[in-house]
Design brief:
This protein is α/β, with parallel strands linked by helices. It is built from nine helices and seven strands, in the order E-H-E-H-E-H-E-H-E-H-E-H-H-H-H-E. The model has no long low-confidence stretch (mean pLDDT 95).
Length: 259
């Protein structure tokens, strides 16, 4: 299927690895000129070169922390009029809410709620004027099924979800859609990192813990980031103009529910 977005411009946040990288790669394969952001310059440039070689697309880098004003300014300077915005940021650490102080809550909100909102604020009116826009927020399956030890993520991402539910109904008449992609367990460094505590508590190695979790998923495996990237590319496509305000869950069937 031709997604109809060749020649469009995209900002993909936190895209040096993992799900952000997969989204940038999928968009680049469709002929989109992508601007990718991350905090580590060397890793970001290596990813940009990998995408260029694989797709022939134009790839621009913007070094910075997207959770900060400076990081967002760098991304917008590199791509001031994006047609596509993929919001993404590393999740906050796991733990017990009794141990989190106000600063830790603010860091979680800055990265996983406020940064996407500010980037949308900076770009959505231009999309409306041009009569095309696709905004995808990478959130988490925890929005539908909260994970007890990821309370910082549960709270911040659910706040973003509520905000998007209202805004997305205001922009769709202008062919600007806003949707959320909710990853379950994908084979990423982030997933491996979140399993350190549970592996230690169970007296297992990280590899043993990962293998156990794979078998527990209804799909019998973790997701491939390329699958996630393909879903993102479709939501950004010319064919997705009637789909807005949705929470698309990709989790191999982990969430057992009808909604």
């Amino acid at each position: 299927m031709d997604l109809g977005i060749a020649g469009r411009r995209a900002i993909v946040c936190a895209a040096s690895k993992g799900l952000g990288k997969a989204c940038a790669m999928a968009l680049a394969r469709e002929g989109v000129a992508v601007t990718i952001t991350a905090r580590t310059a060397d890793l970001l440039e290596a990813t940009a070169e990998e995408i260029r070689k694989a797709t022939g697309a134009t790839v621009t880098t913007a070094v910075g922390d997207i959770a900060t004003e400076e990081g967002r300014a760098a991304a917008l300077a590199a791509c001031p009029e994006p047609d596509i915005l993929v919001n993404n940021a590393g999740g906050p650490p796991p733990g017990d809410f009794r141990d989190w102080d106000r600063d830790e809550w603010i860091r979680a909100l800055d990265a996983n709620m406020l940064a996407p909102i500010f980037l949308i604020k900076a770009t959505v009116d231009g999309m409306i004027d041009r009569k095309f826009g696709r905004i995808v927020n990478i959130t988490s399956g925890s929005v539908k099924s909260p994970i007890p030890h990821l309370g910082l993520s549960n709270g911040a991402r659910t706040g973003l979800t509520g905000f998007i539910a209202g805004l997305s109904r205001q922009t769709v008449r202008h062919n600007v859609t806003i949707n959320n992609l909710l990853p379950g367990p994908f084979e990423t460094d982030r997933l491996r990192g979140t399993m350190v505590g549970s592996a230690k508590a169970a007296g297992r190695s990280i590899d043993e813990e990962m293998d156990l979790r794979r078998k527990q998923n209804p799909a019998g495996r973790f997701g491939d980031p390329a699958e996630f990237g393909a879903a993102c590319a479709f939501l950004c496509s010319a064919h997705a103009g009637f789909m807005t305000g949705q929470n698309m869950l990709l989790d191999g069937g982990s969430f057992s529910g009808t909604l």
